[in-house]
Each structure stands twice: as structure tokens, then as C-alpha cells.
Amino acid sequence: MSKSALMILAQGAEEMETVITVDMLRRGGVTVTLAGLDGSSPVLCSRQVTLVPDKSLADALAEKPQYDAVILPGGLEGSERLSKSSVVGTLLKEHEKSGKIVAAICAAPTAFVAHGVAKGKRVTSYPSTKDKISSDYTYVEGERVVVDGNIVTSRGPGTAYWFGLTLIELLTGKEKAQQVEKGMLISGY
């Protein structure tokens, strides 16, 4: 049975981080549900690109209350919306507690702070959001992706490929991650 991931899409999300991560995970054999925070309607992202969720977050959770990974894309407005959602907070806490992967890229680790998730863990984020990451975390600079137990964070649009590869490796193994990396010409070209 393939691993499952839930990517939560909110208005103002960073589209590259969303699409690259979903695409890579699907290439890696992970069943990904792109769930709209506010429903199943098209979502206007940070660079005025509209993405269409597979279904609403409510429907995704009704069908499957727990996934192998819950992933938050960045984008300042999108991250703020994720930070304000009690549904997202509950979901992140439940997944963290059960040892499932909880991942965020760019500004989205600020949602961890807002919901009290991943306290005491090593995390990274987009540089301008560093000051929003409280002393409850160990902030890491100079690494594209930071993994601390089941918590995965990354820096921004330019690190989305390595974020995706890391998630593939954690969910389906190093060999599959290497196949995806080779097939996409991320390195070794």
C-alpha cells in the first residue's frame, strides 16, 4: 500500500512550493491529496497562479483522518491562514503526536509556532520569517532542509526540490528518492 500525504492549500500559498512538492511526491509513488483549506474551489496563490485542490480539507479528513505526512506550503498570506486555522492546528498536533511526518516550507513553519507544534525541534524557514520562530525552537541556517525526528522544514521556492526529495526518502526510501532525482535531472546531468 502506498504512503499518503496531505498538502493543505490556502489562499496566498506559494505555488512553486505546492506544485513541486506534490509533483515530486507523486513521482515517488506517494498518494498525495491536495486539500483546499477553505473548500474545493480554485485557490489564488501568491504569484497570481490559480491552483485547483483535489478536494476540500474537510472532505479529505472525512475520508481519511490520518496521513503518513501533512505538508504546509509557504507563502506569507497562505501561512497566515494556516496559522489561524484551528482545524490545521488540531491536525498538526495529532499527526505529530502519532509520529507521522509534519512538514512545512518557507513561511509555513510559522504555523508550527502558532499551533505549538514541534517545540524543542530544529527548524528552518524563509530568512525573513526567522524572527517569528520563537525560542521554543532551535533555528537552523545554511541548510536547505532540516529534519528533526518526524519534523521536516525547508527554506523556500529554491529549496522545494530538496524538500520533495527528503520527503520521498522518508516516506518511500532512499532508492526511490534517488530514482526521482535522477529522472528529474536535479543533479548528475
UniProtKB/TrEMBL annotation:
Key words, A-Z: Cytoplasm, Oxidation
An annotated GO cellular component: mitochondrion
Major localisation: cytoplasm
Taxonomic superkingdom: Eukaryota
Keyword Acyltransferase: no
Protein name: DJ-1/PfpI domain-containing protein
GO biological process, one term: response to oxidative stress
Transmembrane segments: none
